[in-house]
Amino acid sequence: MPSPATDRDDRRFMRRALRLARRGLGRSSPNPAVGAVVVKNGRVIGEGFHAKYGAPHAEVHALAAAGAEAKDATIYVTLEPCHHQGKTPPCTRAILEAGLARVVFGASDPNPKVAGGGGDFLAAQGIQVRPGVLRPECQREHRFFFKHVTTGRPYVVLKTAATLDGRTAAHTGDSRWVTGEKARRHAHRMRAWLDAICVGSGTALTDDPQLTCRLRGGRDPLRVVVDSKLSLPPTAKVLDEASTANCLVACGPKAPAQRRAALEKAGAEVLALPLGPAKGLDLAALLAELGRRGVTSLLLEGGAGLAWGFLAAGLVDEVAYFYAPKLIGGAAAPGMIGGQGFAIMNQAVTLERPRLRRLGDDILLQARVLR
Questions:
Q1: pLDDT value, residue 244
Q2: 232: left (phi over 0), alpha (psi -120 to 50) or beta
Q3: Strand pairing of 297-302 and 318-324?
Q4: pTM above 0.90, yes or no
Q5: E strand or H helix at 16, and its extent?
Q6: How, if at all, do strands 74-79 and 102-107 pair?
């Protein structure tokens, strides 16, 4: 019989499963990026992650790698094994067929199709089940999937790079470069991890960005431009056919038909949205449409007006602020958030559990929005 695992063992192997899970970020959507490790007598005999939507899940990959040795072993999974038929058969079936003695998972699956059924089913079959190992870490790892499966909308991350005095560019508009190379590389990794990236028309016109991931082996996200009047020219780099990622331009209900036709001819998909309560585009409707298309995460990259629109509407879930150790000053220099701002301090968006990370000389602050 396999030797019993300690709590320390369970936590150690779950951390390994979490590291594996991150390898599927941006590629498994709308499914979660799950990691799995099969262990017997303290030795890893198989591991895997969910690498692509429609492909076998992490548990199946890990069990295939373990082969016949999986009998009486333990599998560590970051998310409760599925117990329903989707694009692939349920993972609970693979676990039973492999003859595992024990299943350890981190976070329970909030998907109504699962709703605790995977763990309960396996326990009823005589398999020892331990849920909740490193639950907070696993819930954080799967936060994009959780938001999408429970609300139908993507998880929204507001990302910006600024000097310590809160300026995103000089008063002349020059912004190359606010942060250093390590911070910029991490920002491109975020583009690869999240399903879509979004900018406003001002940023699209001023910077003419490609909105692609420029890391070797990186994946380009869906590119979204919020452009109520369709001011984006058909020659914009965001429409460059060199990228395999699509470009969605969200406009208002009265956007000029001629401009719409020109953008569609250039390869963009144009989506007309109603106006919201603040007379700008209904950003909640945009998120609902992206969610309907299977987008589980959205990276807001600019500009200040768009950031304010999402914040004022209560649509931001997390911030990722890159701070450079620089001071540039200037009353006319653009800042991180525009709009009219909240009238009183207790209306301010409050962040919880901030985490700091050093990237070269720069600092990345990440925090969830307190609900």
A1: 87
A2: beta
A3: unpaired
A4: yes
A5: helix 7-21
A6: parallel
